Amino acid sequence: MSDPMRVRATEKDGIVDVKILMKHDMESGQRKDAAGKVVPAWFINVLNVKAQGKDVFNAQFGPAVSKDPFLNFKYKGSKGDKIVVSWVDTKGDKRTDEATAS
Amino acid sequence: MNKQRRDLLKYSAVFGLMASAGLISTAQAEEWNKAAFEGKSLDDVFKALGTSTPDKSSAVTLNAPDIAENGAVVPVSVTSSLKADQIAILVEKNPSTLAAQFFLPAGTEAFVTTRIKMGQTSNVYALVKADGKWAMAVKEIKVTLGGCGG
């Protein structure tokens, strides 16, 4: 249904730097279409990141997060950590992608 | 040696370890905080986050451009020297004030970068919760092209 995320994780000195680019319109509910009708809100609102099965990052978004949301955070980890990113949007759509820390 | 007693000791040791590693006690907020995201003003959001107006603190840094040419994509970065377990980004003049809230378990650094939308020139607030207390940093970002309507 939705396009895959781009997840990149690089380890340096025991800190894993994780960058995530999600593909989502993040419709704010403020915008009007060509016919002047309000486009209903539709955005990712919950995101969870696990490394080696353990929560390392949780986020909640409002409609004010940009289209194709970008996230960058850092956690204490090591090379080869399996990172699993999953989000849920306001329509209940889900998407999970994985990456390995390098 | 009493076998049962040995086993019990073993189990309690395992549970103790799990609890201290945060495996049992992580009651992370999975549920979307609707009240906070529907807040229309700073005070609404502060209240939903369970605080009064937080103190401004130099321990919180909000990195963002002074002028955003495109309000639809404003890069913001929050860092803190505090041991933060939550970070929130608020835009005062947006239709809904709270843009995003982040939950950081132990081991995750007090740092986050994301991109937000801004309808117009406004103060942006970076809130950091550490030791049960919120602290904040404020910065005005000028927007030349709004990113909400259109």
CATH architecture of chain A: Sandwich
**Uncertain residue segments of chain A:** none
- The first-level CATH class of chain A is given as Mainly Beta
For this structure, the quaternary state is: heterodimer
Task: Strand order, main sheet of chain A: write it out.
Answer: 4-3-6-7
Share in β-strands of chain A: over 45%
Q: Element order, helices and strands of chain A?
A: EEEEEEE
Give the class-level CATH name of the largest domain in chain B.
Answer: Mainly Beta
User: Could you name the CATH topology of chain A?
Assistant: Immunoglobulin-like
In short:
The complex is a heterodimer of chains A (102) and B (150). With 102 residues, chain A is mostly beta strands. Chain A is 0% helix and 51% strand.
Describe this structure in words.
The complex is a heterodimer of chains A (102) and B (150). Chain A has a single domain (6-100), classed as Sandwich (Immunoglobulin-like). Chain A has strands spanning 6-12, 15-21, 44-51, 54-61, 70-76, 82-89, 94-100. Chain A has no helices and seven strands. Chain B has 150 residues and is an alpha+beta fold. β4 of chain A pairs antiparallel with β6 of chain B.
Indicate the topology:
The complex is a heterodimer of chains A (102) and B (150).
Chain A (H helix, E strand, L loop, with lengths): L5 E7 L2 E7 L22 E8 L2 E8 L8 E7 L5 E8 L4 E7 L2
Antiparallel strand pairs in A: 1-2, 2-5, 3-4, 3-6, 6-7
Chain B lengths: L2 H18 L13 H4 L4 H7 L6 E2 L3 E4 L3 E2 L5 E7 L3 E8 L6 E6 L7 E6 L5 E9 L2 E11 L7
Parallel strand pairs in B: 1-9, 3-9
Antiparallel strand pairs in B: 2-4, 4-7, 5-6, 5-8, 8-9
